[in-house]
Amino acid sequence: MPIVEMLEKYAAQKNARFHMPGHKGYGSGAPKFLAECFPFDITELDFSDNLADPSGAIASAQRLYAEAYGAEKCLFSTNGSTCGVLAMLASARGKIMAERASHVSVFNALKLRREEAVLVNNRYSDGKFMPLAPDDVRYALERNPDVGTLVITAPNYYGETGDVAAISGICREKGVRLIADMAHGAHFAFTPLLKNIYRFCDAFVVSAHKTLPAMTQAAAVLVNDGSLFDGINGAMRVFHTSSPSYVLMASLDYARERASLAAATGEDRRVFDAVKEITAVPSVKFMPNDDFTRLVIEDTDGAAAERYFVSQGVRPEFSDVSRVVFILSLAESRENLLKLKRAVETMPHFVKPADGFSFEKPVFTPLKPCSGDTEYVPLGEAEGRVCAGSVGRYPPGVPLFVSGETVSYAAEAARGEMFGLKNGKIKVYK
Fold first, then answer.
1. Is the pLDDT of residue 125 over 70?
2. Domain limits of the chain?
3. Model-level pTM?
4. 389 vs 103, which has greater pLDDT?
5. What is the C-alpha R_g of the chain?
6. DSSP, residue by residue, 177-205
7. What is the pLDDT of residue 29?
8. What is the pLDDT of residue 230?
9. What contacts 13, CB < 8 A, 6 or more positions away?
């Protein structure tokens, strides 16, 4: 752990610190958890390397990350996966095609490019976008031959990866770069019990903090096609803070080391077996997916079920209209696994609400940059208007409507709390 070891060595020296940050490495009067972090929270010094141009501990840690994922290059981000998404798309060549069920950061990146893009549509059913269908990708690419880059999400918030290999094959056939938001799949590299989906992509981003033992905002961009590295690296320097947190980078360093031990010590298998026991509870229905660490209870009243689990001292990640999602770790504690199992076994039956709306939109939709005056109108009355901002639910952070898109199915979608609304109204162009 090069960064961890470097920070531990400096903290032990107990230097008089006449450099940033202002806490000076000690936390007199600070809460205990902050005081314990302060000695390791440093800045760029003659020994501490520089994320913008690494050659020491940071360079070594990034190289170890790249090796863990089987990638050519790695770039750390202390600005989360969002920074990686912005950088990958800012440096992408040609017209961009993105799957409709992308994270809001993808649509923000498209907005910044101020260029026409294409959305290839995911099917939507019962409150959830389905994984992108390879046949839809082929259809959309054949009718948009000027597309140079496709952006996909794998896995999604529900642990579904879709057929990344098939989509990659189509992209290579068409000469299209494949970039992936793999924020929720950082842990796939560290156990043979999960698919190696990384190798099919030219570049991808992972959120270590989502599924590995790293601190929030700790992420990494991995590059399989070395020809893309300079462009992505240059864009990272635009979007990334020039004062990256060494504590966050140290947590990335530790997360890789800790996760690497999972398969070696059998922790991944222990968790896998525990999950099999939990999902075997006959009174509860679990949604099948591609990630055993992502438990999804379905066919229930999601909100009511979430409240039940919270009352049992079990905190899910989130719920939608008919599901509850739990995120486990490869090194999940035995105590917590048992607690979850007991809560599942005693879970009451909650009646699933009436089926949510479903749609199969046209296979692809042009997305044009827009400008001009805007106004707010009630969401249920916005049919046929052009959206001026992203609107959706978080989690999972996937917009139902994005800027430049003509609003449809608004009345059906107007349920529950959503981001991007103002007093229940949506911003549209006049």
1. yes
2. 2-262, 265-345, 370-429
3. 0.91
4. 103
5. 23
6. EEEEE-GGGGGGGG-TTS---GGG-SEEE
7. 85
8. 97
9. none
In angstroms, the CA 369 to CA 388 distance is 10
How long is the chain?
Answer: 430
Report the alpha-carbon distance of residue 323 to residue 300 in Å, rounded.
Answer: 6
CATH 3.30.470.10 is right for the domain spanning 2-262: no
Rounded CA gap, 386 and 337, in Å? 47
* Pairing between β-strand 95-99 and β-strand 147-153 as defined by DSSP bridges: parallel
- Under CATH, which architecture does the 265-345 domain have? Alpha-Beta Complex (3.90)
Backbone angles phi, psi at 88, to 5 degrees: -65, -40
Give tens-digit pLDDT for 353-365: 876 666 677 788 8
CB 74 within 8 A of CB 221: yes
Indicate if the alpha-carbon torsion angle 321, 206, 51, 223 is positive or negative. Answer: negative
- Report CA-CA distances (Å) from 114 to 109, 385, 403, 404: 9, 20, 11, 11
Query: Which fold, 370-429?
Result: Ornithine Decarboxylase; Chain A, domain 4 (3.90.100)
Distances (CA, A) of 217 to 76, 246, 403: 10, 12, 26
- Fold: same for 2-262 and 370-429: no
